[in-house]
Amino acid sequence: MEFLKQFLIFSSLNDEEFKQIEEIAIKRRYQPRMFVFMEGEEREAVFFIKSGLVKAYKIDEDGNEQVISLLQSGDMFPHVGFFDGSPYPATAEAVQETELIVIRVDDFNELLMTYPEMTIKVMKIMGKKILDLQERIQGFISKDVQHRLTHALRKLAAEHGVQKGTGVYINLPITNQDFANMVGTSRETINRTLNEMKKKKLLTADRSGILIHDADWLNSCN
């Protein structure tokens, strides 16, 4: 109950109503590289991340992975298709050992009908995700790889970063291939771009995360 209270969509419910949610919610654990669901599968449930990290991505016509988002504790997913019964719009895969709270679609839809204020909050979340995707598409069209990578770093820092001195640390085990899949380029191009940033002492990176040395620099990039 205490964990679910942090989610915006449940913020207006009282303890008695939360107990009803507890009765329909279950826990699932996933090891790294296990699929939560795959694109095109029948929509089974709505997921809330208690701990761990989940990668949502699509596969393009050439078989390339296009990362849509990295989701961590406190996130819910999927973000679209609540009202049309469509299949899962992307594949979700655990990056780390992950624990999820799961509510079946039928039960979740019943919650939305019972508590209209939840529906409004879900629509706000969906609207924000659509705006984020529109911004990424515009970046793909109008920006070079360095700009797209910087934008990805800024978004990750805003969503997953912690302040560290004058910089910000992105505490995610993200690979260069993941970056390539996020910004629509090759791993080799990402390698070169990140190495240039390291030479300029803009950032350092290891297997556990990325340290942006100057948060002001990152926030000033357009």
From TrEMBL:
GO MF annotation list: DNA binding; DNA-binding transcription factor activity
GO cellular component, one term: cytosol
Keywords noted in UniProt: Activator, DNA-binding, Transcription, Transcription regulation
Cyclic nucleotide-binding domain: residues covered: 9-129
Signal peptide: none
UniProt keyword annotation of Kinase present: no
Annotated source species: Bacillus swezeyi
Domain HTH crp-type: 143-216
SUPFAM superfamilies tied to this protein: cAMP-binding domain-like (SSF51206), Winged helix' DNA-binding domain (SSF46785)
Pfam hit, one: cNMP_binding
PROSITE patterns: CNMP_BINDING_3, HTH_CRP_2
Protein name: Crp/Fnr family transcriptional regulator
Gene3D superfamilies: Jelly Rolls (2.60.120.10), Winged helix-like DNA-binding domain superfamily/Winged helix DNA-binding domain (1.10.10.10)
